[in-house]
Q: What sequence folds into this?
């Protein structure tokens, strides 16, 4: 294939993906299956950087995310869908990149600072510090041209680009230097209870809409979303982050611009907008959850899909590691 290559990943943390994962990233993954040589990875090695889940729970979360990705529209005939831990090439390349990363450079990663501050663990694992480097390996292994991600991953992608360039300069042309693909409107979906933070699987229940939530739960979460004390519906992410977040969610689900949604609801109360947002999310989430449950009823088929994906991934990743290792002198 001479199509450009695309690679992206999602962590199997929690019992479900959240709204931001879908709108910020996965929706673009689905769109990019055609027109791109697409590789999508469930990054389970990244899921033990904080408190590691029970082994069986982690295995089940990997299946859940896989089923959700399929329910979202990924088609194993049009993309390689695989699990990171199935390919030892990821940590193999990561080691070489770790040795090229400056300690100060790694210390500047804001997600590391956020996550370590919030984890509350009495002992911080080194893996939490080095995971952006593993993430760089995840991307560079596949010689990806484009990486569809949410805004929160921009800094990590910049590190990935720097490491690719550094390796290439030292050992000769080896890695494609990837570009971030960040959608506009839905690149940063905010926590409904704390609009100063992005929505995340690892944040508190009430601010996060999980795509497995029941319609009643989704509606309640949207209605309780923190907004502001004014009453004017206006898209202004600086002054009105909570309200602007709702406008962005609505625009994304109805495939229009925030300007159009702003116009549609101008002069109406916040309640009307919240009702419409809840309806739009439920209209997507309900059939999505039903399809996910169907897929989870056949775990053997999920495992077959992932085994096939791993085989396709290995063909590319194996070549990259062999090339990089030979250049380093291994
Ligand atoms: P999480 O924080 O939910 O665990 P992941 O680290 O698994 O998310 O990220 C999977 C993808 O989803 C990444 O491309 C990331 O940029 C995107 N993403 C995560 N949260 C959001 C959000 N709130 N808004 C937009 N995109 C997001
Ligand atoms: Na494809």
A:
């Amino acid at each position: 294939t001479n199509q450009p290559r695309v690679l992206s990943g999602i962590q199997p943390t929690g019992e479900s993906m959240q709204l931001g994962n879908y709108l910020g990233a996965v929706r673009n993954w689905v769109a990019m299956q055609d027109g791109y040589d697409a590789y999508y990875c469930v990054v389970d090695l990244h899921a033990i950087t904080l408190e590691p889940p029970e082994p069986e729970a982690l295995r089940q979360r990997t299946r859940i995310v896989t089923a959700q990705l399929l329910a979202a529209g990924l088609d194993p005939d049009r993309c390689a869908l695989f699990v990171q831990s199935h390919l030892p090439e990821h940590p193999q390349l990561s080691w070489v990149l770790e040795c090229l990363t400056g300690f100060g450079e790694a210390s500047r990663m804001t997600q590391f600072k956020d996550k370590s501050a919030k984890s509350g663990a009495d002992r911080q694992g080194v893996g939490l510090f080095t995971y952006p480097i593993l993430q760089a390996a995840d991307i560079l292994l596949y010689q990806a041209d484009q990486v569809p991600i949410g805004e929160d991953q921009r800094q990590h992608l910049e590190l990935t680009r720097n490491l690719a360039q550094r390796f290439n300069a030292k050992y000769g042309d080896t890695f494609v230097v990837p570009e971030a693909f960040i959608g506009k409107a839905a690149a940063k979906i905010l926590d409904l209870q704390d609009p100063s933070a992005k929505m995340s699987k690892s944040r508190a229940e009430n601010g996060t809409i999980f795509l497995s939530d029941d319609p009643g739960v989704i509606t309640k979460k949207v209605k309780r979303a923190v907004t502001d004390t004014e009453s004017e519906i206006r898209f202004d992410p600086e002054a009105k982050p909570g309200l602007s977040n709702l406008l962005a969610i609505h625009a994304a689900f109805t495939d229009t611009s925030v300007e159009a949604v702003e116009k549609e609801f101008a002069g109406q109360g916040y309640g009307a907008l919240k009702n419409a947002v809840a309806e739009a999310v439920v209209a997507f989430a309900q059939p999505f959850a039903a399809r996910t449950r169907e897929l989870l009823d056949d775990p053997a088929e999920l495992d077959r899909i992932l085994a096939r994906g791993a085989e396709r991934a290995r063909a590319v990743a194996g070549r990259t590691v062999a090339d990089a290792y030979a250049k380093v002198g291994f």
